[in-house]
């Protein structure tokens, strides 16, 4: 056993055994961690470019598809098809992911020819898997999207119109920048992230005048007369220099009404325009009249019971509640709500699978179309059209300069329907028909894997999984009660929710309230999150172990006892998380055959930077106890907490030792507490 404790066991060539004896699989004894690390380091920075067909809708904490492909390739019994770049290899196998989240396992397994089962308690992963795995012709989606956009534009384009300040031509609005209204003893002020709007090479910066709110060049002194407007103040100035009070936010005002329109941004290409291209301008009376018309129309919108949009104080949503936001409706401008209402009215005309894809596209567009979006163009080197989207920090953040995007902008600009359709449907569907993998060569070229498809045929019941290759069954519900026969699954590969981790189900409510309007019959929108092991706010930290135990017991029931493998990735600093995992696995009757440590997180990711975050995962390879003798794990003398890779390796080795031990459960918990204290 080397320093990482990776077992190098020599097994016979894997093969099926009609006697029911458990013969070894390649992953039991070997895994190319060096290759996995190199691929992951490339993929981590732009996962959506490497696996576009899994990114139709926003989800969090996705693991690298290349890592899971490599895991699955180590389950291939035919050595001639085990190579990473060899197509297929898992035909005839059934693979389950009981906590599928972003759907990585399902997509990677179906590419290799397997039939797959995916389960999640949250409806968004289920809907996304159903949409992205279905073999729906791109032409049908192109036609429907064009019709949908035409109808949306006919109804709403006039509201998203402005005019060029240089030639007065009418042009589509690109976006509108707002400042946040606050006050002190001296009166109201408007806070912005920066008075600078854009830096241009060789030209003076474009700025806002803090007195008259006009857009001016930085090298030009504004000669404005006193206009009686609230002064513009950059966010770095937190207190009034006159009265010394901090600037207060009026929490009694609806969130959307706390913002004041400041800058209209558009692009003019009209013939004869003296200054064609991108422009920044203060809103005119016509711009303000459109906003007033949208505000009036907002009052007539009916999205159903107001309580359906009420914000529960969850682990992440409590940040909204603390800012006086009581409804998800408040997070959107009036034009954005009209956009959602029109989409909900138009979607029922389309066939179910097309409707599903378009609804998910509209829903995911909200990440770029809410008043929680910020402006990224004020710093040197940043593109002026880039949007700091709603979940840039895997949490709710509140910009001082809010950006109201135009989702119907006719070009492929950031966060528009046109851009999202191109990236997440058109490009994704083309990739699904000819999946590619990056080569680890000097030029890092891609290889097309001829014969693979990232799509399949949905079945309504487990029996249908046997009807041919690449069948898929997706279910919404808790994995503590899987609707599958005993011993019906060959392998289980997943990435379980972590104890006390980021609360994704809580964040996902931002989208769920709208998907329930866009797809009212598409899912169970009243499901009980108490069945989720990821949300201690709802089920309490003490319920994590019982819930995980129930899930693992079901995994043990549906897994084929001979040759079945339960494989998942895991990392955690918290001893309670490792203790819960140990107890759940032991109660379910699993033993650890091997473990491997791979790179899993981007260290510069904004939600983990400067935190005590692990950048590696332990891949845990388990089998049902009694069907294969477990290795004789050696208890680590100490768990190295100075190195992410070694920490994961030591914890996994301790897990293996504890699964083999007969320690009482209290002693298991005490062992983890002592090891990670």
Topology at a glance:
Elements: H1 26-29, H2 33-43, H3 47-50, H4 65-73, E1 94-97, H5 104-111, E2 115-120, H6 123-133, H7 138-156, E3 161-163, E4 170-184, E5 187-192, E6 196-200, E7 203-208, E8 215-217, E9 232-234, E10 259-268, E11 277-281, H8 285-298, H9 318-322, H10 334-346, H11 352-365, E12 374-375, E13 387-388, E14 401-405, H12 417-433, E15 436-438, E16 446-448, E17 457-458, E18 471-476, E19 491-494, H13 504-518, H14 536-539, H15 544-558, E20 565-570, H16 575-588, E21 590-599, E22 616-624, H17 644-660, H18 665-675
Parallel strand pairs: 1-2, 1-19, 2-18, 5-9, 17-18, 19-20
Antiparallel strand pairs: 3-4, 4-5, 4-10, 4-14, 6-7, 7-8, 10-11, 12-13, 15-16, 20-22, 21-22
Helix pairs in contact: 2-4, 4-5, 6-11, 7-10, 7-12, 8-10, 11-12, 11-13, 15-16, 16-17, 16-18
Descriptive terms for the model:
single chain; 677 residues; alpha/beta; eight-stranded mixed sheet; seven-stranded mixed sheet; 17% strand; disordered N terminus
